[in-house]
Amino acid sequence: MKGLDLTAEEVAGLAARHPALMRPALRDRVGGPILALALLGLFVFGLWDLDISPARLAGGTVTLVRFLALMVPPDPLGHAVLFVQALGETLAISLLGTLTAAVLAFPAGLVASRNVVANPVIHHVARRIFDVIRSIDVLVWALVWIGVVGLGPFAGVLAIACSDFGALGKLFSETVETTGHRAREGVRAAGGGAIDEVRFGLLPQVLPVIAGQALYFFESNVRAAAIIGIVGAGGIGLHLYEAIRTLEWREVSFLVLMVLVSVALIDTVSSRLRAAMRG
Amino acid sequence: MTPGRDAPASPSAVVLLPDDRLGALRRGYDAVGNRRRLKLLAGLAVLVLLAGVSARIAEIDPVTMWLKFGGFTSYFDRLATLDSGARVWTDPVEWFWGLKKWSLLLGQTLLMAYVGTLWGAVFAAVLCFAASRTTRRDGRVRFAALRFLEFCRTVPVLVFALIFVVAFGLGALPGVLALAVHTAGSLGKLFTEVVENADGNPAEGVRASGGSGIQAIRFGVLPQVLSSFASYTLLRFEINLRDATVMGFVGAGGIGEELLVAIRRFYYSDVSAMLVLIVLTVVALDLMTERLRGRLFPGEAR
């Protein structure tokens, strides 16, 4: 490293003038490496405990590369119509699931917001309910709903609606809590009641934001809806599962491409919509 | 209707416009309002139409829904009932009879999430410097890195797991790899944005005093972005734990397989016991990471 050529005295002088910079506290110097070592130690323990060996990794990678080679060119192998129908079903599940979740989560999110319902007990109970629902994966919800309404896309819609209810409810209530109180005070000062306060003082601030959040969830739910077919809750997942199990790799790559393209399209449309809602 | 619009203003505080000019303003205001309302209605109409089409495709039948809703509540009723017919909470020992086995599996799930997250985060941290505009001038490398990250995060994590199970064999390995690949994709994007938003002056300073590109990243960029990296990684850890709980559904390790078997064979009290354990673990990790993230950024409230 060339650069500044300092003499030893100059360096010593700098060290004397800025002791804190040249000689950081022991805690700062030791803390970082110890934390890094601990993280690394747990990582190595995990590799050992989970039976992840270089030999298995290498062997599997060779197999994986062979599969990748078998994936080109992507080809529906005569099932194109079936796959397109399944993709439509996936999009439908995602849309309805997100819509149901958003419609239900909106009032629930209001109830869970500190600045709408002042009662701390209600606020906390609602938040904890969201947390519990949120911490159960969508596939588990799908299995539960299959037990109730049977196999098929309907169970998928309900599963996505359930798991998103928790996530959106939490997000909505956080959004409502970040709003300013000026507009609501204005409404109250002009003689509005509690309902007017929410309708004119709160909703105009939060609606565009939560509509954007719901749109974003729709997009990520397309991915969730693409896998719930694995357990039998409708959509393209079932075909994907079958194709992988029967090692029809060209079908697999075709199906994955279908999902990727539709996610990309929805992404483009929804980011435009979001921008329009903000403006 | 805007409250107070028609209220008489006191003449001293508000300058009242003459009626003709006020009328013009009022018409303009109404026109804007009407246009917005029309747009909103059109949007709602499109949404309802789409929902209707979707409902047909997804074979949704409100009548079945209504009839089956009793099934939903009775499902939860069965979840809360032991084989003996008693409520689960009256006999916690019987309810959590498999606590030792389930805790071990849950521990394995946690470890999978941890290893997958760290692995993916390291990948993401390397790739993000290749993908960000400020550290990599070469457009082609950047494009390739960005597309690769996009691929990794758009393919659902369970699809990776399914493919990896075939390639690597059953067990935790394919699950960890799937989590790592997906994590690399989603964190890589976030990390790239963090790096692009970092102040460029320190890196420039390092380069001006003779440092190499690597040194510029190490001393000029990394100190600025490390806490954001850690914060996003913690957030991802929590998401990955949730994903790891279902990896077992496709044979990729963790508690999922046990859960799937219990659900499929209608061992209701086992299902609820495992769900309780999963929820407790996820919520505990959630609270812990939130606190850690709070310590990373003491200035912010959250």
TrEMBL record, chain B:
Keywords: Cell membrane, Membrane, Transmembrane, Transmembrane helix, Transport. PROSITE patterns: ABC_TM1. Its main location: membrane. GO terms for cellular component: plasma membrane. The chain crosses the membrane at residues 40-58, 111-132, 157-181, 266-287. Residues 106-289 form the ABC transmembrane type-1 domain. Pfam families: BPD_transp_1. InterPro entries: MetI-like, MetI-like_sf, PhnE/PtxC. This is Phosphonate ABC transporter, permease protein PhnE. It comes from Lichenibacterium ramalinae. The gene is phnE.
